């Protein structure tokens, strides 16, 4: 019975943002203390049930213990203290990955410039590459970043509302972006560009795109968050 | 009043725990027992609340902990740090000042 009590307390502490190392140690210490109290009560002549009850009483209620841990800032996890940062963190993650990918594409193209000067790339291939770059950078990258942050949110016990807000911000930003990756060969060999903006004419379309992307990213991200949360709570 | 006499209002648990651990290294259950025995039952709290207080004191650098396996159980022993001793001295002098003040008031004639 006490095992179940401490497992529930541990989960409640994690949900309230107590750092995992303090949760683990609290569980260890409280269980040990409870066992000592039970043994002491049984040595006084109490039955096992009475000893359990008096140990529970001496230790204090779960609600009181939870409040004492949760209200101490020093015991809160860093992620919990900065949980509002999840609204912008996926966006910053996306911008970092996006910029790195663009720089890599520029570097590769510059390296191949001499070779591309002498060849003509067929138009369907050029369109295909452009389409692929758009899908990769404006659909798959934001989704991968969102799912990655979903797993991180699970490990750090971040509430779903913060993760959802972050994913929506990321998807709106990504929906307003555009990328061109046109590789034609010859001189000049093509162009690589990226930008962000919207016009009132295309805004409904872009918002619809953001909504679709957010829905597609939120489901796996939320599932992964839940999985990671369950795993770390019972470790 | 609490600003001038923090020990009176909020530092008592910290003061008594640091004082007990200044004597020797103990684990939580021992601290709880010692609190009850030394204060002759005058200081008795839900024993579980000792642990968050110990964790906070450790986070503030006043205590240091180490796990030790004994009788098949892992116990976390706490000992006071030099910073903790300095804090204890401050809390004790604050508490004595308050205690002397209260003693004087209690000892004074009500007709003065």
Examine the coordinates and then state which fold CATH places here, giving the name of the CATH topology of chain B.
Answer: Arc Repressor Mutant, subunit A
List low-confidence stretches of chain A: none
Oligomeric state of the chains?
Answer: heterodimer
Determine the structural class of chain A based on helices, strands and strand pairing.
mainly alpha
Silhouette of chain A? elongated
**H/E element sequence of chain B:** HHEHHEEH
Q: How many domains, in number, for the residues of chain A?
A: 2
Proportion of strand residues of chain A: 5-15%
Separation of the first and last Cα atoms of chain A: 19 Å
Number of helices of chain B: 5
- Which range best describes the helical content of chain B: under 10%, 10-25%, 25-40%, 40-55%, 55-70% or over 70%? 55-70%
Quick gist of this model?
Chain A is mainly alpha-helical. Chain A is built from ten helices and two strands, in the order αααααααααββα. Chain A folds into two domains: 2-76, no CATH class; 82-233, no CATH class.
Key phrases:
heterodimer; A: 235 residues; mainly alpha; 2 domains; two-stranded antiparallel ribbon; 10 helices; 2 strands; 73% helix; elongated; B: 112 residues; alpha+beta; Arc Repressor Mutant, subunit A; three-stranded antiparallel beta sheet; 5 helices; 3 strands; disordered N terminus
